[in-house]
Design a protein that fits this description.
alpha/beta; Rossmann fold; Arc Repressor Mutant, subunit A; 3 domains; nine-stranded mixed beta sheet; three-stranded antiparallel beta sheet; 18 helices; 46% helix; 13% strand; elongated
């Protein structure tokens, strides 16, 4: 317990960067000795100008209180040497010595796929992420993402329909991003785990989200980038995956879409294209879904409704566009869309556009 408290305490010191922590441990010999040494006096010979800041942070840090916060919220704090620590993270460079876990990482979560993308995704990207994640969940494959708005959230939502999912936060578990995502976090924890290496009440910073991306890659056997512009945190995750020896796959996007500029570049550089879940399963060495006839997949609908449903595949359309492409009267199309939406077959998107729901 003394070793655990020492690690939790060291993790509470924002000025004690990984490099400085390594210097300190090398100097002192272990976490308890390092924690005790910081409590006696500043160490300018190790930390230069940061020594006084680290000393003051050490005086304010309370690892016992940190453990109580996590326990009260139903979470646990695990250190590298404990059996609950996820094994895949022990194999990455610079593994976090301390992890906060809400829910549970299970041995079956070794069969996991990371799925990431831009926060400002298109309706196409959102649908593809949700559909792929749901189909992976149906095969018992855990989906790992970062719980950010956009592609991450769509991936978690899809996985929750059929299987397990893991969210890795760039904040402490007590300050999830974005604000208001506590309900999603609870749902993920009930069907998987929410994980962070940051102290309980730590808010996100420009450096915390890129840093957590190495854990998304580390928990995954391979990474799928659904949509990413040229400058995107998803591409940072892809770099981490490649550094860890993982394959990176990408969903092709329109050449006119800024949201797909980064994913299309990954494809030019050799990433495997994802055109269906079978491409991911093949890379994992998992048998693909058995072929199901398109007739068996389609719901039985009256002719006019079936015509509209078939039209609403992956591209969202407005009511006017549906009228123009089907030749059906405006009132009839509007009524059919209401019925399809009530049946759970179609969803309305912002801007009064309609799209087929993944099945």
């Amino acid at each position: 317990m003394e070793e655990k408290l020492a690690w939790v305490g060291l993790n509470l010191l924002p000025s004690l960067t990984p490099r400085r922590r390594e210097l300190l441990l090398r100097r002192c010999g272990g976490p308890k000795e390092a924690w005790d040494a910081l409590g006696r006096a500043p160490l300018p010979e190790l930390f230069d100008d940061a020594a006084h800041h680290i000393f003051q942070e050490r005086r304010r840090a309370n690892p016992e209180e940190e453990l109580k916060k996590a326990k009260k919220a139903g979470a646990k704090i695990v250190i590298f040497s404990e059996p609950e620590y996820p094994e895949p993270l022990k194999e990455i460079p610079d593994p976090p010595p301390v992890l906060y876990i809400l829910g549970e990482w299970k041995e079956g979560d070794r069969l996991a796929v990371g799925m990431v993308g831009t926060r400002r995704c298109t309706s196409y990207g959102r649908l593809v992420a949700k559909k792929l994640a749901q189909e992976l969940g149906e095969r018992g494959i855990t989906v790992v993402s970062g719980m950010a708005p956009g592609i991450d959230t769509a991936a978690h939502e899809g996985a929750l329909l059929s299987g397990r999912t893991i969210a890795v936060l760039g904040t402490g578990l007590g300050k999830p991003y974005p604000a208001g995502s506590e309900k999603l976090m609870e749902r993920i924890a009930a069907r998987g785990a929410v994980i962070s290496e940051f102290p309980w009440d730590m808010e996100g910073a420009p450096w915390t989200f890129p840093r957590r991306n190495r854990l998304i890659a580390g928990l995954s056997l391979l990474l799928v980038v659904v949509e990413a512009p040229e400058r995107s945190g998803a591409l940072i995750t892809a770099d981490y995956a490649l550094e860890q020896g993982k394959e990176v796959l990408a969903v092709p996007g329109p050449i006119t879409s800024e949201a797909s500029a980064g994913t299309n570049r990954l494809l030019r550089e050799g990433a495997k294209p994802v055109t269906s879940v079978d491409d991911i399963l093949e890379e994992l060495g998992v048998l693909p879904f058995p072929q199901i006839s398109s007739k068996a997949r389609e719901p039985e609908l009256p002719p006019a409704a079936a015509q509209i449903y078939k039209l609403l595949s992956l591209e969202p359309l407005s009511l006017e566009e549906i009228v123009a492409q089907t030749g059906l009267p405006h009132p009839q199309v509007a009524q059919i869309l209401v019925e399809l939406e009530l049946s759970g077959l179609v969803e309305e998107l912002p801007g009064r556009r309609f799209m087929r729901k993944p099945r």
